[in-house]
Amino acid sequence: MALYEGENDSHLLTAETEFGSQCKLVFDSIITQIEWRLVAMSAVSSDFDFLSGHSLSKSSVDKLKKKAVNLSQTYKADLDSSDFLSEMASFKYQAAAMMDNFEKSSPIDILQLIHKYSLTDAYPSTAIAIRTFLTIPVTVATCERSFSKLKLIKNYMRSTMGQERLFSLAIISIENEVAHNIDFDDVISEFVLRKARKVTLN
């Protein structure tokens, strides 16, 4: 009823009331986006939750194998189902024997264990699964930052910019912290060596 009256009597709305109405629209949009992301990330987390120390120590081998099968079906291009199943059967016990406070270890702790003891060849699918899980949030954030940066880089004054130049400027802008730490002398020297034309004279 308040909205109906507001539409008919919009000329009677004060600036404060109109500002409050606009704020509510923005807040509704933010809440909707947060809820959608929470649902999406919760679904991803439930797929990978068996790779934490707590789940590995508390879950049975059969349950871990079932989770591994489901995950390998979701990521068919990256994970081999048969290899992942056989890895889960032994990794549960080997990781527990090699780590202190195994039950409280996070996926990144387990991945560091795999690299520390050079177990990547023995458990390749497990390492790939954990890396996939740990990089998903980063991938999402990078995509969102890319769209925000592209609006700033390719404006109406740069409408004729080519794809390669746009891509390079976008990478520099997105990864500006890395760009600030680059030694340009080394980059220039490498560029000069690549472009150098050397002719052997007899």
General description of the model:
The protein is an all-alpha fold. Helices cover 73% and strands 0% of the residues. The chain has helices spanning 2-8, 15-48, 53-58, 61-74, 81-98, 107-116, 124-153, 163-174, 176-180, 184-195. Helix 2 (15-48) packs antiparallel against helix 7, helix 6 packs across helix 7 (124-153) and helix 7 crosses helix 8 (163-174). The chain is flat, with a radius of gyration of 26 Å. The model is unreliable at 1-7 (pLDDT under 50). It holds the Pfam family Dimer_Tnp_hAT. Residues 100-177 form the HAT C-terminal dimerisation domain. InterPro entries: HATC_C_dom, RNaseH-like_sf. This is Zinc finger MYM-type protein 1-like.
**Rg computed from alpha carbons, rounded to a whole number of angstroms:** 26 Å
Q: Helical proportion?
A: over 70%
Separation, N- and C-terminal Cα atoms: 94 Å
What is the succession of H and E elements? HHHHHHHHHH
* Structural shape: flat
**By helix and strand content, what is the structural category?**
mainly alpha
Q: What is the number of beta strands?
A: 0
User: Mean of the pLDDT scores?
Assistant: 82
Stretches where pLDDT is under 50 for at least 5 consecutive residues are: 1-7
